[in-house]
Design brief:
Strand order of the largest sheet: 1-2-3-4
Largest sheet: 4 strands, mixed
Strand content: 5-15%
Shape: globular
Helix content: 40-55%
Oligomer: single chain
Number of helices: 6
Radius of gyration: 15 Å
């Protein structure tokens, strides 16, 4: 029972926190696309990632969310949980299915990139795995969390043109 309540509370918090949809082209810091629940980024790093994502969204309409947490719920894979979070938050335009969520579980040492149906036509599961294995993981091994995600975003944006 406690597990169900905990998961329900988490989804409510996730739903209201990661991405607030507005019709305004200008986003504010309260509408963050980087949810750092595991405190992996400094405030300046978080702002830098947020700016990069918002600038890309303004030029392409594609939506990205970076989501960190301490650990995954028990018996849940990173990709399954990332997909649940992305769907709950509504990452991506509903009519275009053009969202992408990068999930980082700090203590589980798990990463996942979840893509919308239209996104996966360009950024396939294989390409996402290559980005994780060749860009993010080497930086994370050196505790360079910001550089890993920043470089991954550069590659995602390059391939998602």
């Amino acid at each position: 029972m406690k597990k169900v309540i905990s998961i329900s509370i988490l989804f409510v918090l996730v739903f209201i926190s990661c991405k607030t949809k507005t019709n305004d082209a200008v986003k504010t810091h309260n509408q963050s696309v980087v949810q750092d629940l595991a405190s992996m980024f400094s405030p300046n790093e978080k702002d830098s990632l947020t700016s990069k994502i918002i600038d890309y969204e303004a030029s392409s309409s594609n939506e990205i969310c970076v989501y960190t947490l301490d650990s995954l719920p028990q018996n849940t894979t990173a990709i399954y949980y990332a997909t649940q979070i992305a769907n709950t938050l509504g990452v991506g335009k509903k009519d275009k299915n053009n969202g992408l969520l990068i999930l980082i579980s700090k203590y589980d040492r798990e990463l996942a990139i979840s893509t919308g149906y239209a996104t996966e036509k360009v950024l396939t599961d294989y390409k996402c795995k290559v980005i994780i294995d060749s860009i993010i993981v080497p930086k994370f091994k050196n505790d360079e969390f910001y550089n890993g995600i920043n470089n991954a975003l550069d590659e995602i944006i390059l391939q998602w043109q």
